[in-house]
Amino acid sequence: xxxxxxxxxxxxxxxxxxxxxxxxxxxxxxxxxxxxxxxxxxxxxxxxxxxxxxxxxxxxxxxxxxxxxxxxxxxxxxxxxxxxxxxxxxxxxxxxxxxxxxxxxxxxxxxxxxxxxxxxxxxxxxxxxxxxxxxxxxxxxxxxxxxxxxxxxxxxxxxxxxxxxxxxxxxxxxxxxxxxxxxxxxxxxxxxxxxxxxxxxxxxxxxxxx
Length: 210
What we know:
Radius of gyration: 20 Å
């Protein structure tokens, strides 16, 4: 249906692309990423509405629905919505001078309280570029934070609050070994052509966005 894929690092550029195609965006599955990009774009709040698929017309009035330039699907990442402004305040009290970074799938309140909001790759780059001795408190999946702390022992890298993704946690050396060891006996994953073609088209559109 003319759609496109985005990640947290290119969502802003994809927003621009989408508005070049039409007057309204349906953004899913993460309402908070969509909200934070809309805020960055300066879109009025009455033009950015949360659409609840379980409610008639998304829980909106006809006027709200027609006036909305962005419809945010009511969905979220449980890892990133775990973080609160209290966590930010506690980090600042515990580590004076700390730089607080948050993933854009956090709530807009947490993004507003942080010093920097960015994708995984952007936060990793910030840590890599910082002078030795810099202290960070980061609001994202805890295993990434552990890796950053390991890779940059000259910096103080802390989690804003422990939040673990059980699905990402399955990606480990043991499971990788187990998969590779039995690869020739594993059942292949087959995607129907109708699904594959549309998914590829949406991905190709994303890769073509400058």
